[in-house]
C-alpha cells in the first residue's frame, strides 16, 4: 500500500468520511480495465456520488478537488454515460511492491425519498511492470510525475562528515536516484520561483507527494500556483518543476521531478478536422538533444488503437522533425456531439479524448521516459440552425388533407417537450392523442434525430379562410416547438408558420350495376382532375389494368369487370347461381387515406352442376369470402379419395359417375335422385378451424335427377375397320405431382408448410411421383430424368443427376433405389405411381466442372426437379 510520509495528508484524506463500508451488489454496467498505468471504469447509469474504499473499511467521498489531488478524473457524454480514470499511483490504491495495484470504488445512484440511494461497488487489480526511469501522466485535471527511487546502501557513509553544517549543504545527490530507508522528506523546492515548502504545506496547497517502495510520486493541478507556461517548439506547455529533499542525520538527498503537459492552445480547428500538435523534443524533460524515440502510440479514452482501427476511423499520426501531429475528423467514431443554446440559437460542439503515449531514451543519461497524455478536445461551438420542412401534399380534398411537418436535425440530447399553438399549448402526448402523430425519427447511424408531425387541416388549431370568388381555401398553421437539452435542462424554441391553398374540390361519386356477366363501376370526378388512385379489390388500377377494363368519359370513367375476376370475391354459392362482390376504394396517394369506398354485390346465373345421360356428373366448387383460408385443391367428394379433376386457388372441378365417390341414390315417385357433398376431409377441417377459428365450414351439396321409366331411341350404323387402332405419340396437359414421404411406408407425406425439410448427409429421402388426373389404366408413368439444383430455376447450375433416361446415374456413389408400387386404398393404378429412394447430399461451391458434374460434400439447401413421360401399356 502507499506510504504517506506526511501525517497531515493522511488526516486530510481520512477526515472526509469515516464510516463502515457496506457490502453492495455488483452491476453489469460497471466495467473496469487496466490500461497501462491507468485504470478505466465505464459507468453506464448516471451516478450521484463516487467514493474510494480505503483499506476495505473507510469510504472517502471524491470531491472534485480531492479527485484532482489524488489522481482521479471523470468524463460524461450527453446520454449520461460516464468514464472514470484513475492513476495506478492514486491515493487509495493498495500498492504491492510497485508491481500490483488494487483499487476499490463505490458508486451511488440517485434514489428517492422512500429508499436509500442504491450503492454499487467495483474493484480492480492491475499489474504494471517494469516501470521506466520516469513516468509522466497528463490527465484532464492533473499532471503527475513518478521517478525511480534506487540507491546503494548509504549506511557506509560517515554519519558526521567534517565541516558540520557547511559540509551538510554540499552532500546533495540528484538525478534518478532517491533515498534509501531511513530518509525523511523534509522540503520541496519549486522552480523557477524557488519557493520552499514543507510536506504538510505542499499537501495543503493541493499538490500530492508520495514515497512508494521504489518511487517518488508528485501530482499537481494544471493551473496550480507553482506551474508555469513555456513555449516548446511553438506549442504552449504547462510545466511543473520540483526538487524534493530527503534527510538522514547529516546527509541530504535531492530528487528532481518535472512534469510537462500540453494546453488547449496546442489544438487547431477547421469545420472538418481537429489537429493536435505535440512537441517531439519536450525541452524541460531533456538534459540534451541526443535521444531516441522508441514508441509512438495513439488511443482514445486511455486505450491504444492499432493501425487497422485508426484507419477505420480516419485518424492519422504524423511524426516530423519537430512535432507529433494528430489529425481527427470532426464527428469521427470515439467522440460525441453536444448541443448548446446561445441567445436561443442552436449550436453543437464535438468532443473527443485522444491519447498519445510516447517512450524515449536519452543517450547520455541512459534513462528512459514513458509519457502519456489523456487530452480531451472540444471544438468551438458550431451553428446548426434547425431546418423546418413542409411536405404537405396540396392535390387533395380538405377533409383528407394534413400538414406534414419536419423539424431537425438535432443531437440525441435534444427532446421535444411541447408545441404551442395560437389557442393552446399541447405536450407531445396530448398532440398524439389529438391525432397529430408526432414522431421522433433517427438517422441511420443513430446519431441525429428529427421531429415529424402531421396536423389535419380539419383540426381547430388550423386557421381557415375561404375565398369564394377565387374558388380556394387558405389553411394556416402557426406553432412554436418547445425543446430542451439534457441533462442540463436548457430550454429553447423554434417558431414556424405554414400555409396551404387548396382548390374547392367536390368529392367524387361512385355508382355501379351488374349485367349477366359483369360488374360496371362508374367514378364521376365532376369538373376536377382526378386526384386519387383507385383500388379495385386488392389491386391498384394501373395502366395495364385500365387498358383492359376501363372506359373513359369527359368527367368520369367506368370499370367493367367479369364477376369471376380474381379482383372480386364470392359471397355465396347456390345450385344455379353465384353471388359475387366487388370492392372499390378511392385513396389519397400521399397518405393512403380512403376518400371514397364503394361495394357492389350481385347474383349471377351460373350452372355449377351438370348431369349427363351416361350416368356421369360434373360439379364446380368456388372459394367463398367466408372461408378465406380454404385451399380448393383439398376439397373432396363424400369419399375422401375422390378429389378434384382440376383446381386452382379459387375453383375446384369434379367429374365422377353417379355410382362412385360416396354418391347416394333415392327414389322420389318416378325420379331417381343422386346426391353428393363437396367438403374438406375431417382432418383438414379440424386443422383449418384450429388456425382460423372464425371461419365457417365449407359444404356444397350437388345432385342429379333422372326419370326412372323412360325409353330413348338411339340409331347407329357400323362398318368394318380398315385396321386395328393404335396409340400415336402426342402432347397434352397432364397433372403430375412429386411428394416427399416421411418414411419408407409412403403412407404420410410432408405438407407445403413443412418445407424446407432438414436432412443430414446420406440420410434417405423417399420420393413419390404420381399421375393425378388420369383414370386411364392403359397408360404408365415413366421417370425419364430427375436432378437437383441449388435454387428454384430448374435450368440453373450447378446440378446433379439422380435419374438419367429412367435409370440410376452410374457416376453417383450413392445411387437411387427404385421401389415397387402395389395397389391399395390410395393407389388405384400402380403404373401411374413411381417411388424411389435417394440419399441426402450437398454441393461444393467451387466444384462445377466443364462437363457439369458436381462434387458432393458439405450441407446445403437445394431443389429436386423431374421430367416424366406417359406411355401406353403393352397388351399381355
Structure in words:
The chain is mostly beta strands and 876 residues long. It contains eight helices and 65 strands. An eight-stranded mixed sheet has the order 14-15-11-10-28-27-21-22. Strands 3, 4, 7, 8 and 9 form a five-stranded antiparallel sheet that branches. Strands 12, 13, 16, 17 and 18 form a five-stranded antiparallel sheet that branches. It is elongated. The chain starts with 6 loop residues before the first helix and ends with a strand. The relative contact order is 0.05. Mean pLDDT is 83; it is low at 1-27, 151-180 and 846-859. Keywords: Disulfide bond, Glycoprotein, Secreted, Signal.
The quaternary state of the protein chains shown equals single chain
What is the tally of helical segments?
Answer: 8
Number of strands: 65
| Sequence stretches where pLDDT stays below 50 over 5 or more residues | 1-27, 151-180, 846-859
Shape by Cα distribution: elongated
Rg: 45 Å
Helical content (DSSP H or I, runs of 4+) = under 10%
Provide the fold topology:
Elements: H1 7-14, E1 30-35, E2 38-43, E3 49-54, E4 58-61, H2 64-70, E5 72-76, E6 82-87, E7 94-96, E8 100-108, E9 119-127, E10 134-138, E11 142-148, H3 165-170, E12 184-191, E13 195-197, H4 199-204, E14 208-211, E15 215-221, E16 228-232, E17 235-248, E18 251-262, E19 267-269, E20 273-279, E21 291-300, E22 303-304, H5 307-313, E23 316-319, E24 323-329, E25 336-342, E26 345-352, E27 354-362, E28 367-374, E29 377-378, E30 382-383, E31 387-390, E32 402-411, E33 414-421, E34 424-427, H6 428-433, E35 439-442, E36 448-456, E37 463-467, E38 472-485, E39 490-503, E40 509-514, E41 518-524, E42 533-536, E43 539-540, H7 543-549, E44 550-552, E45 556-562, E46 569-573, E47 577-587, E48 594-605, E49 609-611, E50 616-622, E51 646-647, E52 651-657, E53 664-668, E54 671-679, H8 682-691, E55 699-707, E56 736-741, E57 764-771, E58 779-789, E59 799-804, E60 807-808, E61 817-819, E62 833-839, E63 843-848, E64 854-856, E65 863-872
Parallel strand pairs: 10-28
Antiparallel strand pairs: 1-2, 2-6, 3-4, 3-8, 5-6, 7-8, 8-9, 10-11, 11-15, 12-13, 12-17, 14-15, 16-17, 17-18, 19-20, 20-24, 21-22, 21-27, 23-24, 25-26, 26-29, 26-30, 27-28, 31-32, 32-36, 33-34, 33-38, 35-36, 37-38, 38-39, 40-41, 41-45, 42-43, 42-47, 44-45, 46-47, 47-48, 49-50, 50-52, 51-52, ...
Amino acid at each position: 500500500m502507499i506510504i504517506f510520509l506526511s501525517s497531515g495528508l493522511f488526516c486530510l484524506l481520512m477526515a472526509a468520511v469515516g464510516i463502515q463500508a457496506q457490502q453492495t451488489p455488483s452491476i453489469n454496467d460497471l466495467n473496469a480495465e487496466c490500461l497501462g498505468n491507468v485504470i478505466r471504469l465505464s459507468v453506464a447509469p448516471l451516478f450521484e456520488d463516487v467514493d474510494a474504499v480505503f483499506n476495505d473499511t473507510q469510504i472517502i467521498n471524491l470531491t472534485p478537488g480531492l479527485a484532482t489531488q489524488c489522481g482521479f478524473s471523470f468524463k460524461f457524454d450527453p446520454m449520461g454515460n460516464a468514464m472514470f480514470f484513475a492513476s495506478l499511483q492514486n491515493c487509495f490504491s493498495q500498492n504491492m511492491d510497485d508491481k500490483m495495484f488494487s483499487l476499490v470504488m463505490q458508486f451511488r445512484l440517485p434514489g428517492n425519498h422512500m429508499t436509500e440511494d442504491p450503492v454499487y461497488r467495483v474493484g480492480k487489480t492491475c499489474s504494471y511492470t517494469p516501470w521506466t526511469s520516469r513516468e509522466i501522466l497528463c490527465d484532464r485535471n492533473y499532471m503527475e510525475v513518478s521517478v525511480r527511487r534506487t540507491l546503494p546502501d548509504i549506511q557506509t557513509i560517515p554519519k558526521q562528515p567534517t565541516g558540520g553544517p557547511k559540509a551538510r549543504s554540499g552532500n546533495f545527490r540528484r538525478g534518478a536516484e532517491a533515498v534509501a530507508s531511513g530518509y525523511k522528506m523534509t522540503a520541496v523546492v519549486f522552480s523557477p520561483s524557488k519557493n520552499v515548502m514543507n510536506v504538510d504545506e505542499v499537501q495543503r496547497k493541493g499538490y500530492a507527494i508520495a514515497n512508494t517502495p521504489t518511487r517518488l510520486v508528485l501530482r499537481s493541478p494544471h493551473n496550480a500556483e507553482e506551474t508555469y507556461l513555456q513555449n516548446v517548439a511553438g506549442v504552449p506547455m504547462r510545466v511543473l518543476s520540483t526538487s524534493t529533499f530527503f534527510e538522514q542525520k547529516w546527509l541530504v538527498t535531492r530528487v528532481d521531478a518535472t512534469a510537462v503537459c500540453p494546453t488547449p492552445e496546442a489544438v487547431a480547428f477547421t469545420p472538418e478536422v481537429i489537429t493536435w500538435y505535440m512537441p517531439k523534443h519536450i525541452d524541460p524533460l531533456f538534459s540534451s538533444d541526443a535521444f531516441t524515440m522508441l514508441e509512438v502510440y495513439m488511443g482514445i479514452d486511455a486505450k491504444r488503437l492499432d493501425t487497422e482501427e485508426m484507419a477505420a476511423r480516419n485518424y492519422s499520426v504524423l511524426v516530423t522533425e519537430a512535432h507529433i501531429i494528430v489529425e481527427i475528423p470532426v464527428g469521427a467514431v470515439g467522440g460525441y456531439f453536444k448541443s448548446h443554446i446561445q441567445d436561443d440559437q442552436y449550436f453543437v460542439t464535438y468532443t473527443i479524448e485522444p491519447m498519445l503515449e510516447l517512450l524515449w531514451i536519452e543517450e547520455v543519461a541512459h534513462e528512459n521516459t514513458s509519457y502519456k497524455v489523456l487530452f480531451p478536445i472540444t471544438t468551438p461551438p458550431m451553428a446548426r440552425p434547425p431546418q423546418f420542412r413542409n411536405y404537405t401534399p396540396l392535390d387533395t380534398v380538405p377533409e383528407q388533407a394534413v400538414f406534414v411537418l419536419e423539424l431537425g436535425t438535432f443531437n440525441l440530447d435534444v427532446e421535444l417537450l411541447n408545441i404551442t399553438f395560437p389557442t393552446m399549448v399541447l405536450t407531445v402526448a396530448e398532440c398524439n392523442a389529438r391525432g397529430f402523430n408526432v414522431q421522433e425519427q433517427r438517422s441511420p447511424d443513430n446519431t441525429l434525430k428529427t421531429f415529424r408531425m402531421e396536423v389535419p387541416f380539419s383540426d381547430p388549431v388550423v386557421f381557415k379562410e375561404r375565398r369564394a370568388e377565387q374558388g380556394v381555401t387558405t389553411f394556416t398553421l402557426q406553432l412554436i416547438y418547445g425543446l430542451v437539452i439534457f441533462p442540463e435542462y436548457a430550454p429553447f424554441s423554434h417558431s414556424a408558420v405554414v400555409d396551404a391553398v387548396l382548390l374547392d374540390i367536390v368529392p367524387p361519386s361512385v355508382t355501379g350495376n351488374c349485367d349477366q356477366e359483369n360488374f360496371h363501376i362508374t367514378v364521376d370526378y365532376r369538373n376536377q382532375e382526378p386526384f386519387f388512385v383507385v383500388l379495385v379489390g386488392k389491386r391498384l388500377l394501373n395502366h395495364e389494368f385500365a387498358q383492359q377494363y376501363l372506359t373513359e368519359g369527359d368527367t368520369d370513367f367506368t370499370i367493367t369487370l367479369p364477376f369471376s375476376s380474381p379482383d372480386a370475391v364470392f359471397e355465396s354459392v347456390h345450385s344455379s347461381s353465384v353471388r359475387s362482390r366487388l370492392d372499390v376504394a378511392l385513396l389519397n396517394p400521399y397518405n393512403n387515406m380512403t376518400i371514397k369506398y364503394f361495394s357492389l354485390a350481385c347474383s349471377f346465373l351460373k350452372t355449377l352442376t351438370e348431369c349427363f345421360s351416361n350416368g356421369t356428373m360434373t360439379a364446380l366448387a368456388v372459394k367463398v369470402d367466408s372461408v378465406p383460408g380454404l385451399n380448393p385443391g383439398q376439397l373432396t367428394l363424400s369419399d375422401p379419395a375422390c378429389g378434384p379433376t382440376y383446381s386452382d386457388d379459387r375453383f375446384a372441378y369434379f367429374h365422377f359417375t353417379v355410382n362412385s365417390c360416396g354418391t347416394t341414390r333415392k327414389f322420389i315417385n318416378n325420379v331417381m335422385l343422386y346426391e353428393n357433398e363437396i367438403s374438406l376431409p375431417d382432418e383438414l377441417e379440424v386443422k383449418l378451424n384450429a388456425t382460423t377459428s372464425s371461419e365457417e365450414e365449407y359444404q356444397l351439396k350437388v345432385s342429379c335427377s333422372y326419370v326412372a321409366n323412360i325409353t330413348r331411341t338411339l340409331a347407329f350404323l357400323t362398318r368394318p375397320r380398315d385396321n386395328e387402332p393404335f396409340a400415336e405419340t402426342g402432347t397434352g396437359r397432364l397433372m403430375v405431382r412429386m411428394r416427399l414421404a416421411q418414411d419408407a411406408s409412403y403412407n404420410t407425406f410432408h405438407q407445403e408448410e413443412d418445407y424446407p425439410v432438414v436432412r443430414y448427409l446420406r440420410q434417405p429421402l423417399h420420393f413419390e411421383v404420381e399421375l393425378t388426373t388420369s383414370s386411364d389404366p392403359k397408360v404408365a408413368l415413366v421417370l425419364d430424368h430427375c436432378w437437383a439444383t441449388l435454387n428454384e430455376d430448374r435450368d440453373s447450375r450447378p446440378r446433379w443427376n439422380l435419374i438419367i433416361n429412367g435409370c440410376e446415374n452410374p457416376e453417383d456413389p450413392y445411387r437411387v433405389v427404385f421401389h415397387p408400387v402395389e395397389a391399395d386404398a390410395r393407389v388405384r393404378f400402380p403404373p401411374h405411381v413411381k417411388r424411389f429412394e435417394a440419399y441426402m447430399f450437398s454441393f461444393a461451391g467451387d466444384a462445377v466442372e466443364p462437363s457439369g458434374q458436381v462434387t458432393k460434400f458439405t450441407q446445403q439447401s437445394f431443389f429436386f426437379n423431374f421430367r416424366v413421360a406417359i406411355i401406353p401399356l403393352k397388351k399381355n
